[in-house]
Each structure stands twice: as C-alpha cells, then as structure tokens.
Amino acid sequence: MGNPNVQKAMDLINEQEAVNFLRELIAINSVNPPGAETAVAEAIRDHLAAAGLSAELDEVEPGRSNVLSALTGTGAEGEEQRVLVFSGHLDTVPTGNIPWQHDPFGGERVGNKLYGRGTTDMKGGVAAMVLAMEYLHRAGVKLQGTLRFVGTVGEEVDCLGAKAVASKGQVNDATAMVISEPSTNRPFIAHKGALWLEAVTYGKTAHGSMPDQGVNAITAMARFIHELESYSFTYEHHPLLGSPTMNIGVIQGGVKTNVVPDQCTLTLDIRTVPGQEHALITGDLHKLLAQVCEPLGAQCEIRVSNDLPAVTTAKEHPFIQLSQETIKNLWGTDVPVSGVNYYTDASIYGPHLGVPILIYGPGEPTLAHQPDEWIEIDRYLDSIRFYLTLAAAYLGTEV
Ligand SMILES: [Zn+2]
Fold first, then answer.
1. Distance 125 CA to ligand 1 centre (A)
2. 142 and 102 in a common domain
3. 381 alpha carbon – ligand 1 mean position (Å)
4. Per-residue pLDDT averaged across 134-151, rounded?
5. How far is the CA of 91 from the centre of ligand 1 (A)?
6. How confident is the model at residue 80, as a pLDDT?
7. Domain limit, last residue, from 308, 341, 372
8. In sequence order, what DSSP letters do the residues of 272-286 get, joined into one string?
9. Are residues 302 and 161 part of one domain?
10. Based on the structure, what is the number of domains in the chain?
11. Last residue of a domain, one of 308, 325, 341
C-alpha cells in the first residue's frame, strides 16, 4: 500500500458508523414485490451527500429508483481510463411465512451478528461499497481511474434496474465490475443462468362421468412430467458450476372433481451453465411437450418468464488476479475462485458490457432468502477494506 492516503482511508473505517448505516438501510422496507426502492436510494444519496459526494436518483418506475454516484478519476480527458463499477441491488425478497426470532427491519445486533432482511442479500454489500467510496473520498485519495457506484432496483424479480442502466448506457465506460452479492468474502467469478418456463396444455372439457368426450389437460401434463424425468441437457460440464438443474415449481389445473380439465399449467426453473443456449432448451422442451400432447388430441404452448444467461470471467483475467492478490495482501491467504448457483445483475451487465465481473460480498450465500437473515459484522468491515484497496490498486492513485 504505497499511498499514505489509502492507509488513511483504511483507518477511517469505523464499526459503529458502518453498523448504523447498514441499520438505516435495513429499517427501510424494500421487499420486492413491490420493491419501493426509492427510499433506500434516497438514504444512500443522503449519506454520500453528508460526506461531500453527489449521487443521483434515476426513477425506473414510480417509487422505484436506481442510485448512481462516482468518484471521478484524475486521468486526463480522452486518455484511455479505467472505470471500476461497484454494483448491488436495493430490493429484498419478502420476509416469508416462517416467523422470525429477530425483527426483520430492526437491525438487532447479537455479538458479531446483525440481523434483518437484506443484511446478507444484499444491503450489507451495498452499504460496504458506499462506505468504501466515502472513505476514499474523505481520506483525499486521488484515483486516476473512475470509481462508480450503482444501486439497482428489482434484481430479486426481473433485474429491472440493471436493465435500465444497460439500456441507458449509464455504465458503458466500465472496464471492470464488482457485484457485492453474498459470497462470504470469497471471489466468485461465475454464476449459473436462469431460464424459467411456463408449459401449458389445453384439452377439451366434458362431464367427469364421460371422460371419453373430453381431452384431459392434466393427463397430458402428467405425461410431460414423466418425460422430463428422463430428459437430459446438452452441455459441457463447467469446472466451477458443474451441471445444469431443473425444478418443477408449480402445477395448476382443473376446476372440479367431476369436470374434465381443459387446461393445466406447469412452471419450470432451469439453471444453466455457460455455453447452453436458452432458446435451444426452450425449443427442445416445446417439442417434447407437443409429442406427448399430440396422441391425446391436446394443444400446448411454452412461455418464457425469465431468461438470464450464465456468466463467467476467466480466472486468468488480470482483474481477477488482482482481486486475489488484494485478498492475499490484506489477509495473507490464498482464496480460490469459485462459482455460484444463484443469478445476479451480472446476467444483464455481462453480455452488455463484456468486462470482467467479480462477485464478492460480505453476506452468507446460504442465508439469502431465509428467515433470521444475518451478517457477520467483522466480515462486513473486511469487505469495506477489500473494496477500498481493490479500487485503489485497480484504478491507480496519485499522491
Ligand atoms: Zn441478491
């Protein structure tokens, strides 16, 4: 750490201040649906403003705003500049039906743990990135490249916020990105894709006492499910992500015991590995569905409800190498890169920007979407150290 101001920024990291800021974000309900993330975006903007940094809200839908901020680099205009983007989402999943032992919006502290919806996924990561930016600024670190922060809406449902950022070209100058989704401060460089399908069979209704007069849509779907059990994906085993998976999530059909059902719907959650074409999978399954429907005289269709590609960055990429070196410099340990099954805004940013993307956040991946979600405060503070050091190392500093 050559630059004394970077050390100064590290020394500014203050546990009480960091915990208070995270508590403030946890106290704001941004459960999605509906999201209502604007209040979170405002809290981040106001926090940055108090530190002398400006941030802008960008309303994507009524009551739902992304928040964007930047530490502009000192590099000469027009010169090829490095731009590092810190990104995280502002929404959370619902608190669920299982009662919590801790108030989901209370930010209760027990020892080294802070409880609340979003502590892990991922207001902890968002707060840490904002604080890293603030401490760099307060310590007077002059970055040569530009550091951006983007807080997005809607990741838990449809990546609405990231789609808006991409379509408006708001981070098109990015040369690298970090997303602070939960990784227990380990470097993740790949995640699976998500393909959510809705299969529908259409039959012909009839009185339940005369089933031969109708076409049973549930029977057709049952045959499709049977076929799915022996369905195998075409793919190449991925060293970090392994194999694709498929889950049957919801089945709906029929109206009454004595009526032949004329419609049945099934939803599928398919998680893919890099290299799999989602359109090919959809086409394959449609063919399979049509094959079982035809002899019964049933009709069918397949609809796509979510389509996010898998994302991967080569572990040899200099930015990933630098991330690992940063971890080693800070804590003296070699932490191997890995991959995760959940998806992130990287599914939107990756294909759009074509830059290396690191997923690194203080949360616990296994606690995401669970009751009594918590974050370890030590790990949260360590993530601030990591973001701050990585930004200085990657973007370069002037004394
Ligand atoms: Zn998340």
1. 10
2. yes
3. 19
4. 97
5. 8
6. 77
7. 308
8. E-TT--HHHHHHHHH
9. no
10. 2
11. 308
Pair 119, 170 in one domain? yes
| Phi/psi-derived region of residue 396, left when phi > 0, alpha when psi is between -120 and 50, beta in every other case | left
* Cβ partners under 8 Å of residue 75, min gap 6: 81, 82, 144, 145, 146
Flag whether pLDDT at 177 surpasses 90: yes
CA of 155 to the centre of ligand 1 (A): 7
| 312 alpha carbon – ligand 1 mean position (Å) | 17
Measure Cα distances from 245 to 13, 193, 310 in Å: 42, 10, 13
Taking the centre of ligand 1 as the mean of its atom positions, its distance from the CA of residue 288, in whole angstroms, is 33
Centre of ligand 1 to C-alpha 181, Å, is 5
Task: Give residue 90's domain range.
Answer: 4-191+310-398
Q: Could you give the residue ranges of the DSSP H alpha helices within the chain?
A: 4-12, 15-27, 38-50, 124-138, 160-167, 217-229, 278-293, 318-331, 346-353, 377-395
Q: Report CA(232)–ligand 1 centroid distance (Å).
A: 29
Q: What does pTM read for this prediction?
A: 0.93
Cα 120 to averaged position of ligand 1 atoms, centre (Å): 8
* Contact indicator for 311, 189 with CB cutoff of 8 Å: no
Q: Specify the 3-state DSSP secondary structure of 221.
A: helix
Per-residue pLDDT tens over the stretch 15-32: 999 999 999 999 999 999
When pLDDT is averaged across residues 133-140 and rounded to a whole number, the result is: 97
List, as ranges, residues with CB under 5 A of the ion ligand 1. 121-122, 181
pLDDT value of position 79: 63
Evaluate if residue 190 carries a pLDDT over 90: yes
Residue 75 has pLDDT above 90, yes or no: no
In this predicted model, what pLDDT tens digit does every residue of 238-248 receive, in sequence order?
999 999 999 99
119 and 21 housed in the same domain: yes
pLDDT tens digits for range 206-223: 999 999 999 999 999 999
349 and 292, same structural domain?
Answer: no
Q: Is the pLDDT of residue 77 over 70?
A: no
Same domain, 284 and 318: no
Which residue in 233, 149, 245 sits closest to 194, CA to CA? 245
Distance 343 CA to ligand 1 centre (A): 8
Asked if residue 197 and residue 183 are part of one domain, the reply reads no
Ligand 1 center–CA 89 separation, angstroms: 7
